[in-house]
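protein under study:
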Amino acid sequence: MAFYLTLSEAAKQTGRSKETLSRAIKEGRLSVVEKTERGFKLDPAEVFRVFPSKQPQATREDQTQTVANEATQKLITHLEETIRRLQQDKEEAAAREQDDRRERDRLLGIIEGLKLLEAPKAEPKPQQIAEPQRKGWFSRLFS
């Protein structure tokens, strides 16, 4: 089944008035498939040959651009989510670090308190071991 446009539909799609299209038909610049009681049947290819569409046609480049934009948008969404997660991890790490510092300071306080409780010990003096008097050779021989 072929698809045809009426004069009104063709006027809307081309952005021209019905009078302009009728004038083109009368002048022979635009051919008609059939004239019926309801009006003209116009071939869309013929209409757009004479009057290019005012609505931008989706070209292959536009479709590629649309796909690229969708992929870019998905990537942006993914990266934003990753950034949000990393910021949350950073905040959690900073909180853990702060807790660790508090715990370290608390433990150092306990250690200092224990050192104060402990009595200072006098350092033992090194004892000199007296070496026995060495006997001479003759005394060792006869004793």
Remarks:
- Strands lie at 34-35, 40-41.
